[in-house]
Every structure is written in C-alpha cells, then in structure tokens.
Amino acid sequence: MTAEPPTDAERMRWFVAVAEELSFSRAAKSLNVARQRLSAAVIELSNDAGEPLFVPGDGPTELTDAGRELLQRARLAVADDDLRRAEAAAAAPEVPTLRVGFVPGVTVTKWTRIWADRFPDIALDALVVEADEQEAALREARVDVCFVRTPVDREGLSVVSLYTELPVVVVPKDHPVSLFADVTLDDLAGEQIQDTTEAVPTMLEMVAAGVGPVILPHSLARLHSRRDLVFRTVTDAPPTQIALAWRHDGTTEVIEEFLGVVRGRSPRSSRSPRTATQAAPKARKAPPVSKETKPKKKPAPKSRRGRR
Questions:
Q1: Cis peptide before 295 (omega within 30 of 0)
Q2: Backbone phi, then psi, for 94, in 5-degree steps?
Q3: Do residues 11 and 41 touch, judged by C-beta distance below 8 A?
Q4: In 3-state terms, what secondary structure has residue 37?
C-alpha cells in the first residue's frame, strides 16, 4: 500500500528534525518514517525554495544559508501546528471509558469481548487489582467497578455475587494427597496448613520447599500452577465468592450496562439510550373474529384429584 504524501506541516516537521539532528538516518528513526520518504520530502522543499537546503557532497550533513533561513520559518510552522493540534484535542469530545478492575484468578475476556461488540463507543480498560487492594481501588476511584473476592466491607459499596470458587489444597506432586481426586479437612488434620496472608507465589515456593500445604481458591491455584506441585479439591472447606462491586455514589448507567453484560442480559434488554430509543415495531391488530368463525371454547379438563 502506498503511503499518503506528507502534509506541508509534516514536511516542515521532518525538515526541522533533519536540520537539528544533522543526520537523515537519525531523524528518520526519531520520526518513525522511512529514510526514503524523509529524503523525498526534503528534496521537495529544496525544489520549492529553488536552491539546496543542505550542502551537497559526501561530507557531514550541513545546512546552506537557504536551509538556515527555512529552519527559522519551519520552527514557527511546527509551533503553530502543535498549537492547532492541542486546541483540536481540547475541543474534541471526551471518549467515555469504563475502568474495570479484577482480582487475579478472574477471567474477564468473555465480558470484555461482549462489551466491545455491544458498546463500541465506550472504551473499556481492564486492570489487574491485587486482592488486598480491591477495596481501596474502588473507594479511591482507581476503578469504576471491580471483580472482587469476598469477604469485602460492603459499606458504601454495591456488591452483586456472581459465582463460587472451589477451595483446593496445593501440595508437592509426591505428597500422599496427590493420589486422591479430592480430600476433606480431616484428611489434612496432621498437616501444617500455611496462612494465606502471603502472596501466592511466595506461598507456593514454601509448599514446594516442604513447609506445608496451602488452601486456595481453584482459580488462583490454576493461575499459578507449577510442575512440581498439584492441587486437589477440599470438599468441606468454605468456598470463596467472586462478586462485582462498585461505589454507591458512583453508580452510572454505564456500570448498570456492564452488570447486565456480566449477568447475561441480552442486547434487546439493554438499558443503553441507543437501544432504548429504537422504536419497537408496532404489533398488528388481529382481524375481528365473526360469530360464524369464532372458535368454540374447549371444555376445561377434569381434575384427576379424587374427592375426599
């Protein structure tokens, strides 16, 4: 595909880069343009000026008198172009963005794909939030909505439970627990179960070192799986919940739309103004039924319940 020719402002910007670098190759690299395009643009400027802008020959790149004169005008032109761009950016309408946080172990790809397809005009930024930061990220407005792992302090927050995570125990691959498909807490009674306040990679390093097993949500064990460790379901350990949370005072229609996407609301039931304003087709009235053609009522079926 042939590249579009540079605008006058671009040619001036390119010329300034070459004049300041005194090197076509360095200027092309800093501008991220092909050197051939850069050379062609400078040749066009030289033709417009009617004389060379750089001293010809194989020596170092050096400006001619005409080149130095053009450099002063080019810098002013570049400054004017920068000002126009800044004013245009300031005047442009702000693109709405939904910032969605999620704790490790939650896979948001399905919902972000649906969102991009259903609401292409509203950008979605997905941000990983560590579990010990999930509440702060919401309360400090670092994210608009967050997939959190309960328990969570619900004061000031709207929290909607989504699904349950199975608890698993992580042990070395040669541990006796690895021989079973699942275990109970009684099966682990003699084990030194680690506290889960440490970061997951640190805990798994300690498991591999023989310090003791750790019980984690299945999603975290899978996310940080290692070849030297295995995990098995603990059938009677308390499960964890994944929920969607946002600030009460930050509730917006966009957040409600995202909740609808996560909960599987169909596009037709979307609350979006775009879809709400689309007029639904009017239902056609059924033609009147004449007495001759009016169907007779069928007798109601008799109850099978016997009399007392």
A1: no
A2: -70, 130
A3: yes
A4: helix
Q: Residue 291: pLDDT above 80?
A: no
For residue 39, is pLDDT > 80?
Answer: yes
User: Which residues are within 8 A (CB) of 149 and not within 5 positions of it... i.e. 6 or more apart?
Assistant: 103, 105, 131, 134, 165, 217, 240, 241, 242, 243
CA 168 to chain centre: 28
First to last CA, the chain: 88
Beta bridge partners of 289: none
CA 175 to chain centre: 39
- Would the pTM count as exceeding 0.85? no
Name the β-bridge partners of 159: 245
Whole-angstrom distance, CA of residue 100 vs CA of residue 164:
20
Cα dihedral 259, 263, 265, 266 sign: positive
Residue ranges in the chain assigned as alpha helix (H)? 8-21, 24-31, 35-49, 65-91, 109-118, 134-139, 200-208, 218-223, 253-262, 273-276
Place of tokens 């889960």: 196
Q: What are phi and psi of 130, to 5 degrees?
A: -65, 150
Tokens of 58: 């194989």
> What residues contact 22, with CB distance under 8 A and at least 6 apart?
60, 61, 62, 63
Query: Which of 185, 168, 167, 166 lies closest to 231 in space, CA to CA?
Result: 168
Residues β-bridged to residue 145: 100
Q: What is the pLDDT of residue 275?
A: 40
State the Cα–Cα distance between residues 22 and 30, nearest whole angstrom. 12
Per-residue pLDDT tens digits for 168-206 = 999 999 999 999 999 999 999 989 999 887 889 999 999
Identify the CA nearest to 100 among candidates 147, 159, 163, 161. 147
Cα–Cα distance for residue pair 135/153, rounded to 1 Å: 8
Predicted local confidence at residue 269, as pLDDT: 63
